[in-house]
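User: Teach me something about this protein's shape.
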Amino acid sequence: MPDAELHALRQQLKALERRNSELEAQLALSQNLDDGLYRFLFDTMDEDFCIIEFFDGPHGPLSDYVHIMANDSGKQLHFEQESSQGMSQAH
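Assistant: First, the predicted structure itself:
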């Protein structure tokens, strides 16, 4: 291969590597914005929402659970339920 063609191919490769880096940076920024947007929606929605994980408990397989994640409405609902259960058990 002539030196001129080899040089041209190397220049094209460098240009493509730069463009690839730019696109990767754009993708990373876009994903961060999407994550932030969904986190904002999750945290500000009026409906309670939580993710729970079931596990084997004292009443058999998958009879107990733990909260993995909850939005503010879900946390408030869970707190109110625990408070009311605690008060009813105390009386």
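Now, about its shape. The first strand starts at residue 50 and ends at 57. The helical segments are 3-44, 72-90. If you'd like, I can walk through any region in more detail.
User: That's plenty for now, thanks!
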